[in-house]
Design a protein that fits this description.
The chain is of the alpha+beta class. It has two domains: 141 residues, 2-Layer Sandwich (TATA-Binding Protein), CATH 3.30.310; 118 residues. Helices cover 40% and strands 24% of the residues. The chain is built from eleven helices and 13 strands. The strands form three sheets. The chain has a six-stranded antiparallel beta sheet with strand order 3-4-5-6-2-7. A hairpin with a 4-residue loop joins strand 10 and strand 11. Helix 2 crosses helix 5 and helix 4 runs antiparallel to helix 5. The termini are far apart.
Length: 302
């Protein structure tokens, strides 16, 4: 009888987790404070609670938006423990947006992106993610104004769906990455990319670079400009309020000797899960445009 009760509790717990719905973004704070001051205090509060700033920039060249990219020891420990494509989960993002008379600070909900990127391995790193979530809550509550409201999807996504997420039939899953290039070694891949960045390539600017050496993983984040860049596609898809500013920047992962990016039809849809097919068709070329821009970093010029 005791074994039956334990089994029932385990099944009930699994059902509760599976039925839980998550949102892509969480509001940290809202205020009438000017953006420069909010950026300054946000950076200070994040640093104070162990969220390391690895990069920041103005996405889509929009003066009403700012993105801060952060990592945390628990994010790095989690990615190191599993390895592979979970390198994409080494950072999270904070978006600061002036909307009307309010400055809204939001962040990518750790459990949402964690379940999407770790999939069935998320349970192995759930404790890490709870600590990261607590760090965000403490940082935004430092001045007593934490909001904590999720947004980005009307109904949210269930954990089970997130772990197997794709926009619709025929669309890519997390593991269906775009392979940009293979190199003879991890070192060769990094040298090519870093050299190209020093030389400069059109419409691609480095926002951050973070390493997980024991797994031969390096994650890059890029600002994308030009006629096919962020200023083209972000206003087309970011129509609701609060804004999905923390969707950016776009990432590229060096995994051992391979250079890969998440497929645009996965990465964009994951960030905008309620995107209608009508809106999606307006950016039909965007996944290929992003791939073309990032390929400049790994293509042989000869």
């Amino acid at each position: 009888m005791k074994k039956v009760v334990i089994l029932f509790i385990v099944i009930l717990g699994w059902m509760n987790v599976s039925a839980q719905t998550l949102q892509p973004y969480t509001i940290g704070t809202e205020s009438g404070t000017d953006m420069p001051d909010v950026i300054e205090t946000t950076i200070s509060d994040l640093n104070q609670y162990g969220l390391e700033i690895v990069g920041q920039y103005m996405p889509a060249n929009d003066k009403n938006r700012w993105v801060i990219v952060v990592t945390h020891p628990e994010l790095l420990n989690a990615a190191e423990s599993i390895g592979g494509l979970t390198g994409f989960a080494a950072t999270l993002r904070v978006g600061i947006t002036l909307e009307g008379d309010k400055t809204i600070v939001s962040y990518t909900t750790p459990a949402y992106w964690g379940n999407a990127y770790y999939r069935d391995d998320f349970d192995k790193v759930a404790d890490n993610y709870e600590k990261v979530e607590k760090a965000f809550e403490n940082a935004f509550n430092h001045r007593g104004h934490f909001v904590g409201t999720g947004f980005g999807s009307e109904k949210g996504l269930e954990v089970e769906k997130l772990r197997k997420y794709h926009y619709m039939f025929g669309m890519p899953y997390f593991e269906d990455v775009e392979e940009l290039e293979d190199f003879e070694s991890h070192k060769d891949a990094l040298k090519m990319i870093d050299d190209r960045l020093k030389e400069g390539v059109p419409n691609v600017k480095l926002v951050y670079r973070i390493e997980i050496p024991r797994r031969s993983l390096v994650l890059y984040g890029f600002a994308l400009s030009g006629e096919n860049g962020e200023a083209k596609f972000l206003p087309t898809i970011d129509l609701s309020s609060p804004k999905h500013t923390a969707f950016l920047p776009y990432e590229m992962l060096v995994y051992k000797n391979e250079v890969v990016m998440l497929h645009g039809r996965y990465r964009i849809a994951l960030a905008f899960p309620d995107l209608t097919m009508g809106t999606f068709t307006k950016i039909m070329s965007t996944p290929g445009d992003i791939e073309d821009m990032l390929e400049q970093l790994v293509e042989d010029e000869d």
